[in-house]
Amino acid sequence: MNFYWQVVLAYVLDLLIGDPRGYPHPVRIVGFCAQALERTSRELFKNQVFAGRVTALAVAGGTYAASWGVLKLLGLAHPWAESLGSVFLIYAALATRSLYDESRPVLEFLKAGNEELARKNLSNIVGRDTDRLDQTEIARAAVETVAESSLDGIVSPLFYACLGGAPLAMAYKAVNTMDSMFGHQDETYRDFGRAAARLDDAANFIPARLTGPIMALASALCGFRGRDSLLTTLKDGQNHDSPNAGIPEAAMAGALGIQLGGRNYYEGLAVEKPLIGAKTREIAAEDISRGHKIMFATSGLALIVFVCGRYFLDSLLGR
């Protein structure tokens, strides 16, 4: 099975089955190893910044090496075994279906008028406090999560899969997983998590800037405001604490004609986030559904762009 079909099959597999509960997902294994290395490095090194660097590089490099080694061992058994192993690892790096599955209950409970259960389900996918959110704020949080996760759960894994195959896609997921685990500003991780956060920023830098125009085109294809999506990306894409996350949020805000950002609460403390997009109307529950449509279209376009880009690169290099 050639490489292009491996990526396509992995993408389809992710859409069909997502992330079934209970099976030993490779990303969970990466997270377990990261926790073990965190404990070891904290004990070995007094300088927590250095300990964080050691952990981040060891986990990312180890994930790449382990993925490459497993595929080579499978290749010794049979070429098809290596191909299927590659499909599985790329599939494991993608999160299109799981992002939909995790955010859909928020939409369903909002439409049913059950804000309490909507807040409870929202708390599973966002880091902010959800207990005081009204319907509009619940919808805003869900749309922001769908937009931001379209980058690190879909576009970036596809980009790295097409750039360096399954091992590089898994190494990216390791970096992204460590950022989720360690990239916090509290006392525990402010120093230790700095390397993981910076590595994640670097890894997402190029994919984020590709996500803007891809999502704008996807929005236009879905019948939303493609031109406004692109213009908002250019205008407000850097209105975010992250150098990357604001880009997909701006693209989504422009496409839907809504304003994202504003006041969030974390452990009871108010944090004012920069505003993204123009407020032409109040955010509604249906914007979550609209965000899902843009997310799926973005994933399909990203697949086409990156697979075709890899094909032309291979042709140019005579591979």
What does the model show?
By secondary structure, the protein is mainly α. It has one domain (3-317). Helix content is 73%, strand content 5%. The chain contains eleven helices and two strands; from the N terminus they run ααααααααααββα. It has helices at residues 3-17, 26-44, 48-77, 79-93, 96-111, 115-122, 135-182, 194-221, 226-236, 246-256, 286-317, and strands spanning 260-266, 269-276. It has a two-stranded antiparallel ribbon with strand order 1-2. Strand 1 (260-266) and strand 2 form a beta hairpin. Helix 2 (26-44) crosses helix 7 (135-182), helix 7 packs parallel to helix 11 (286-317) and helix 9 packs antiparallel against helix 10. It is globular and about 60 Å long. The relative contact order is 0.13. The mean pLDDT is 94.
Instruction: Characterize the biggest β-sheet.
Output: 2 strands, antiparallel
Domain module tally: 1
Strand order of the largest sheet: 1-2
Helicity level: over 70%
**Bulk shape:** globular
- In total, the number of strands is 2
The secondary-structure class comes to mainly alpha
Oligomer: single chain
β content, as a range? under 5%
Rg, Cα atoms, Å: 20 Å
Mean model confidence by pLDDT: 94
Topology readout:
Elements: H1 3-17, H2 26-44, H3 48-77, H4 79-93, H5 96-111, H6 115-122, H7 135-182, H8 194-221, H9 226-236, H10 246-256, E1 260-266, E2 269-276, H11 286-317
Antiparallel strand pairs: 1-2
